[in-house]
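Dock S-adenosyl-L-homocysteine; give full complex structure.
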Amino acid sequence: MILDKKDLEIVLSNLKSFENPKFELEQYSTPSDLAADLLWQAFMDGNIHNKVVVDLGCGTGILAFGASMLGAEIVYGFDVDNEALKTAEENLKRLKEIKIILKKIIFMKKDVSEVNKLCDTVIMNPPFGIQTHKADRPFLEKAFELSNFVYSIHSVNSGRYLKAFAEEHNFNAALIKKGKIILPPTMKFHTKSKYPINVEIWRFVRVQK
Ligand code: SAH
């Protein structure tokens, strides 16, 4: 088990990312520093160690592996894309080779709408809705259905919508930290090779009645 945020970030930075990112699925990897920020917060809140954790839209698995390294009892990663899941399995092999100790981690192909694994905590970096407007909504709705604690990454300035959406589902929303994700060029007018966009880590907690 890893018990230091910097160590976590270093191990995560060695994982393989999307080989051929599919823009329609908004496959942008979470950078290791941002992933470590999200995971460390969840860990410090007591929502990772010995918990059942679900990663919705796990992609190549960075958040799922991080949760596992921080002592999650079992982590389920769900994604629609076979190729991303294949890379996640390669990453699992790579971590075992360098003797990183993981408890149980299971990757499965599923559309987010079909996931029904109840859990303690959901972690996710869902599509932001850059390609399909409001693409993060089915992820948030599903996360609210599955658990009481949700840690998620959203594009900047989503605060008003996130708070209202959370409230509708009886959750409290809190901004944890700001960061950046580097997008590959996805539009015709994109001429540079990298587009940093500002993002935010949010925590959602079910309001107990
Ligand atoms: N969680 C990963 C990947 C983020 S990119 C990381 O942090 O690096 C968003 C991921 O959501 C992609 O892997 C994409 O394949 C997946 N995705 C997009 N639409 C989906 C859907 N409807 N159901 C399940 N996964 C989906």
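Observed: The chain has one domain: 5-12+30-206.
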